[in-house]
Amino acid sequence: MYNMLFKREIKARSSPELRRNEILEAALRVVAEGGPDAITFRRVADRARVPLGSLTYYFDSREDLLREAFRLYLSEATAFISEIESDKRPRTLSGAIEMVFEIARREFSDHPTMVRVEYELILYAARDATLAREFNAYERWMEARLAASLEALGAPRPFDAARTTIDVVRGFEIERLTHPGAQLENLERRLKLVIDALIHEPRTSAASDGKRQPRRIRETTRQRRSVP
C-alpha cells in the first residue's frame, strides 16, 4: 500500500552496505514485474549490475534474498508514511482524508509498478511465518498511527475506523491493479464517505455489541501488542 522505496535518497553507507541495498532494490523490481517466482540470483545480479558472486556473498539462498528484500520494503514504507504524516498531520476531518489520499496518490503517481510489491509480500508472508510476523507488526503500527489521528477527531471506535479506512485503500489498489483506468478521484470520494461516517458514528452504537470499547488509544495498543 505505502511504497515510495525508490523515491527516497540512499544515505551514505559503506561500500558493502550500499551494494547489498542495490541488490535488494533490484530484487524488488524483479518482484514487481514477475512476482517472487521470477527471482533468481542471476536475474537479480543482472538487474543490479553486480557480479553474480555478490549475491552468494550476501545471501544464503533465494528465500533469504526475498525475505530481506521484503524487509527493506517494510522499512522504507514505514519511513514513507512517517514522512507524509509529519507533513500533513490531520487536525480536521478534511485533513485526515487528505493525508490518507496523499499516501495513495504518491504511490500511484511516482512508482505505480511498486504497488504490486506489497501484495506479493502479503501472499508470500502467508507461507513464511517469520515474514508474516513482521508484516503484521507493520500493519499494527500503521493502524495505531491512523487510529490516534481518528480518535483525536472524535471517532468512537478508532481502531475499527483505522482498519476500515486501510481496507478501503487496499480495495482501491487492487481495483486499480486490475483496472488501470480507475481514477484516484474515486478513492477520494470513497474516503470522504467512509471516514466521515466512522468519525460521526453514534457512540451508543460503538457499545451496542455489549463489548466495552477502550477510552484511550494507549490502552487498546497494549491489548493489541499482546496478540501474537
Please give a quick description of this structure.
By secondary structure, the chain is mostly helical. Helices cover 72% and strands 0% of the residues.
Mean pLDDT, all residues: 83
Question: Any low-confidence stretches, pLDDT <50, length ≥5?
Answer: 1-13, 207-215
Shape: elongated
What percentage of residues falls in helices of 4 or more residues?
over 70%
CATH homologous superfamily grouping: Tetracycline Repressor, domain 2
**Annotated CATH topology:** Tetracycline Repressor, domain 2
Using the CA coordinates, give the radius of gyration. 19 Å
Give the tally of β-strands: 0
Distance between the termini: 23 Å
* Main pleated-sheet profile: none
Task: Fill in the keyword field for this structure.
228 residues; Tetracycline Repressor, domain 2; 11 helices; elongated
Helices and strands, with pairings:
Layout: H1 15-34, H2 41-48, H3 52-58, H4 62-87, H5 93-110, H6 115-125, H7 129-152, H8 158-178, H9 184-199, H10 203-206, H11 217-225
Helix pairs in contact: 1-2, 1-4, 1-6, 2-3, 4-7, 5-9, 6-7, 7-8, 7-11, 8-9
